[in-house]
Write a structure and sequence with these properties.
Helix content is 67%, strand content 0%. It is an all-alpha fold.
């Protein structure tokens, strides 16, 4: 305490004598502020909706084209798993060409169907609460996609299925499937086996939606991690705040 008192006295004397001039020194900021731009609730929600819209648009652009599913190993539709013994029997009967054509048309159906998905997905992101928005913003990789998937999968399936039916009809999926399944069921009938004929439209619908969500999640995570993927001022402001 004696030392402190002595220092104060010395400083006071120096100031009074003009020995020390503090007039040119900066005045300390006694009320520091955060340099990070503050975000309103409205900006957060708009930013997240914008991010999802960008992600969905980019995802549809890469999947809704020829070979968008077929040549993408992450989302390519394989032969229906519950009918793999059909594939095995068909191959053993020398039907490799028919099997290849069938698998190709499965993916063509998905590629056609996702062309119709954009407005459905856009409608699905319109209703997002402020609480949801901040949870997604801080939720890390895939948080927005998980939210979207949880809230909309059932509705998307109902809305998507008719479009898949149209798509499978357009690419004549059954014309490649019927010879395979007919041959299989004919052979198994002779041996007392069980006939199989999976719901191809439901199969394509499910995997097309899952594949599209997978691509949306990749786009979302890209926006989160890569500043160059934030293509608007709002996206840059919202995601730079994380």
């Amino acid at each position: 305490m004696k030392n402190c008192s002595l220092i104060i006295v010395i400083i006071s004397v120096c100031l009074s004598c003009g020995v020390v001039d503090l007039s040119g020194l900066p005045i300390p900021n006694t009320n520091p502020t955060n340099n990070t731009p503050s975000l309103s609730n409205d900006e957060v929600i708009k930013g997240l909706k914008e991010a999802l819209t960008v992600g969905i648009q980019n995802s549809v652009n890469v999947t809704g084209v020829t070979d968008g599913f077929l040549k993408n190993g992450e989302i390519r539709l394989p032969f229906p798993p519950d009918a793999l013994k059909v594939k095995e029997k068909a191959l053993s009967l020398g039907m490799q060409g028919q099997v290849d054509k069938f698998e190709t048309t499965l993916n063509r159906a998905a590629e056609e169907a996702v062309k119709e998905a954009l407005p459905i997905f856009k409608d699905a992101i319109l209703n997002m609460s402020i609480q949801d928005g901040f949870g997604i913003l801080k939720g890390g990789d895939g948080a927005a996609t998980r939210f979207l998937k949880e809230k909309t999968t059932a509705g998307l399936t109902s809305a998507f299925l008719p479009k898949v039916k149209n798509a499978t009809s357009k690419v004549q999926l059954t014309s490649y499937w019927n010879p395979i399944i007919t041959k299989y069921n004919t052979v198994t009938a002779l041996t007392g086996g069980e006939k199989i004929n999976p719901d191809l439209d439901a199969y394509v619908t499910q995997l097309a939606i899952e594949g599209l969500f997978k691509m949306v999640e990749k786009e979302e995570n890209k926006i989160r991690k890569d500043p160059g993927a934030r293509v608007t001022d709002l996206l840059r402001k919202v995601f730079s705040s994380i």
